[in-house]
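Quick one, tokens below. Sequence please?
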């Protein structure tokens, strides 16, 4: 068969501004905060023995670890509140409606991502119409779930911090411990289990971002630095005003 007999559909792409600066800022603040929270959380939960010539009374390394943990927690909470505001003030790719893809079309897209991207089923024909401009359906749904878990994480974390805190904000969460019958061990267990949920989310998030970057070549990774992705020309033209909103 001569190659000229083959019918190949050509798809053109254009560079489009998708992720606004505040979205990228909140993303990286959260990424750094969660990283520090996980590392320091492990150390606080299971402190390693450090043998030095100093007496224990002359060391304050665990105090510094706790301080980093608390500062990271405040940074994460601040970023959450700012991101919640931007869900109403930002462009359509940052809008809160993007994170509730549970209508019929959204459920079909979620299944498509799970089937072909996560479980790697063979797709007979790659349909460029399935390529989202912003978040794919699974990412959008998972961000909603992780936001809810982050709120629970925040409540349990500040509840554990409240007894030793002198500031009013952590003490606002003493009701969380009361909710568990005053048992701090149960609160700590919930807090610890949620940390593993975040670790799992990070692993899947890394995989899907790199997978789509390799499969589609649209700048999935660099987009969270530059704000720009490559989108199909017809989709770019349809949403030009919203995509270029600064």
């Amino acid at each position: 068969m001569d190659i000229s007999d083959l019918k190949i559909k050509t798809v053109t792409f254009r560079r489009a501004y998708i992720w606004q600066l505040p979205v990228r800022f909140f993303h990286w603040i959260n990424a750094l905060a969660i990283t520090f929270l996980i590392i320091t959380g492990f150390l606080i939960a299971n402190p390693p023995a450090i043998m030095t010539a100093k007496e224990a009374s002359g060391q304050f390394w665990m105090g510094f670890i706790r301080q980093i943990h608390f500062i990271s927690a405040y940074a994460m909470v601040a970023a959450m509140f700012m991101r919640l505001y931007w869900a109403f003030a930002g462009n359509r790719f940052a809008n809160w409606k993007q994170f509730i893809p549970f209508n019929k079309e959204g459920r079909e897209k979620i299944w498509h991502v799970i089937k072909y991207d996560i479980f790697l089923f063979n797709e007979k024909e790659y349909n460029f119409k399935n390529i989202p401009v912003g978040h794919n359906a699974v990412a959008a749904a998972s961000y909603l779930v992780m936001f809810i878990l982050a709120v629970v994480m925040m409540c349990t974390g500040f509840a554990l911090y409240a007894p030793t805190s002198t500031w009013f904000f952590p003490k606002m969460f003493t009701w969380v411990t009361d909710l568990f019958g005053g048992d701090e061990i149960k609160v700590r267990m919930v807090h610890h289990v949620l940390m593993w949920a975040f670790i799992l989310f990070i692993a899947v998030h890394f995989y899907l971002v790199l997978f789509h970057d390799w499969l589609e070549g649209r700048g999935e990774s660099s987009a969270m630095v530059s704000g720009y992705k490559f989108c199909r020309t017809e989709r770019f033209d349809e949403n030009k005003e919203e995509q270029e909103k600064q």
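The two ends are 50 Å apart (CA to CA). Confidence is low (pLDDT under 50) at residues 1-8, 241-246.
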